[in-house]
Structures are given as structure tokens and as C-alpha cells.
């Protein structure tokens, strides 16, 4: 019997992640990065910026395949042929990029770790839901395709053009979340530099 509760439970997981993100930014607002090393700081900022745009592009690309079809069929082509959860993978890339913008390796690691725990719970729930809904088809898919880290050797394209869902195009606005977080980090750094935000502690790395 199909477990129809999973999509609704997923909403609670998403809201929990949003709340966690808000708490994380409140903590960052009173936390200073370590004294900058010119080359390291520049490299972190460049890599962070690249990661954010890779995340936006990757999530948009993935949504073009699954948008409007997520709860109606099992999508196993395109990015979903190399990882079962490309949206979570690219989100982690983007979160790592946001963490890098803080100038602290510790902040970056903590943000990625916290997001990974949240995503891990979500992926377990989605696996249970898809297994109950699609049975053996999903079991075969799960046995061949990694849960998170892509295996590019498994790439398989669909026969028809996947760019057919207006909902998927509209979902590209998800990238605004990463751009907004990037802007928030820059505003926090500017506020700390101008003594507008209190710095409670300084991170070691």
C-alpha cells in the first residue's frame, strides 16, 4: 500500500531545515572569522562563489527533469541516473559555498555537517516512501544508483526532451535562497567590520 504521508512529512523536514538555517545565521552574526590570510581568504571566497553558482545551476538542471513528475512517476534518467538525490547533493555544494564565504573552515564544516544530518533524515524518509510506492522498480534503482555522491559512469539520458514542465522552470527561483544567503553573509561581515554587530567570539580556523 502506498504511503501517502511522506510528501506531507517532508514539509515538516523542510521547515525544520529553514529554522535551523535561521538559527545558524543568528549565530554567524555574533561570530567572527579567524584573522584573514590573504591567499586563503581569496581562495575561499572564489571557491565559495563557484560552489554557490554550481548549486544554483545543478538544482535548476535537476528540477527540469523531475519538476511536475516527482509524485507521479519514478524518475531515473539525467541527473537521477547518477545519484538518487541530485537536489540534496547540489544543495550541500551550495551550503559549502555559503560556509566558505564566512572565511572560516570551521563554519563551513559545521554548516555542511548540520545540513547533511537534516538531508540524511529526509533521504531515509523518501527512500521508504518510494519503496512503498514503486516496490521492485525502486529496489532495483536503489541497488544500482548511489544515494548522494554521483557516479558519472551511470549516466543515462531519457529518450524525450525533459524540458516540458512549466512548474520546473518556475522552480528555478529556488536559487534565490542561495543568493540571499550569500548577500546575508556579506551584510554580516560588513556589519562586524563597521562595529554594528557585536562579536561574541572568534573562530580559531
Notes on the structure:
By secondary structure, the protein is an all-alpha fold. It has one domain (6-202). The chain contains 7 helices and 2 strands, in the order αβααααααβ. The chain has helices spanning 6-29, 38-66, 86-101, 105-134, 136-144, 166-170, 175-193, and strands at residues 31-32, 201-202. A two-stranded parallel sheet has the order 1-2. Helix 3 runs antiparallel to helix 4, helix 3 (86-101) packs parallel to helix 7 and helix 4 (105-134) packs antiparallel against helix 5. The longest helix is centred in the middle third of the chain and has 30 residues, at 105-134. It is elongated, with a radius of gyration of 19 Å. The N and C termini lie far apart (51 Å).
Would you spell out the secondary-structure blueprint of this structure?
Elements: H1 6-29, E1 31-32, H2 38-66, H3 86-101, H4 105-134, H5 136-144, H6 166-170, H7 175-193, E2 201-202
Helix pairs in contact: 1-4, 2-3, 2-7, 3-4, 3-7, 4-5
Strand order of the largest sheet: 1-2
Rg calculated over all Cα atoms: 19 Å
Series of H and E elements: HEHHHHHHE
Distance between the termini: 51 Å
State the main characteristics.
205 residues; mainly alpha; two-stranded parallel ribbon; 7 helices; 2 strands; 64% helix; elongated
Amino acid at each position: 500500500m502506498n504511503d501517502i504521508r511522506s510528501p506531507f512529512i517532508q514539509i515538516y523536514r523542510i521547515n525544520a531545515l529553514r529554522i535551523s538555517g535561521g538559527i545558524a545565521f543568528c549565530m554567524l552574526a555574533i561570530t567572527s572569522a579567524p584573522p584573514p590570510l590573504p591567499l586563503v581568504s581569496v581562495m575561499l571566497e572564489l571557491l565559495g562563489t563557484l560552489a554557490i553558482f554550481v548549486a544554483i545551476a545543478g538544482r535548476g538542471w535537476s528540477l527540469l527533469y523531475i519538476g511536475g513528475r516527482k509524485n507521479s512517476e519514478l524518475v531515473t534518467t539525467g541527473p537521477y541516473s547518477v545519484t538518487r538525490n541530485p537536489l540534496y547533493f547540489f544543495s550541500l555544494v551550495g551550503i559549502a559555498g555559503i560556509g566558505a564565504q564566512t572565511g572560516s573552515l570551521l563554519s563551513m564544516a559545521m554548516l555542511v555537517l548540520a545540513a547533511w544530518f537534516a538531508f540524511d533524515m529526509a533521504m531515509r524518509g523518501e527512500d521508504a516512501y518510494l519503496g512503498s510506492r514503486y516496490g521492485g522498480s525502486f529496489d532495483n534503482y536503489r541497488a544500482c544508483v548511489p544515494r548522494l555522491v554521483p557516479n558519472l559512469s551511470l549516466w543515462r539520458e531519457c529518450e524525450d526532451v525533459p524540458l516540458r514542465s512549466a512548474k520546473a522552470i518556475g522552480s528555478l527561483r529556488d536559487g534565490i535562497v542561495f543568493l540571499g544567503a550569500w548577500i546575508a553573509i556579506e551584510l554580516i561581515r560588513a556589519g562586524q567590520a563597521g562595529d554594528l554587530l557585536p562579536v561574541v567570539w572568534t573562530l580559531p580556523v
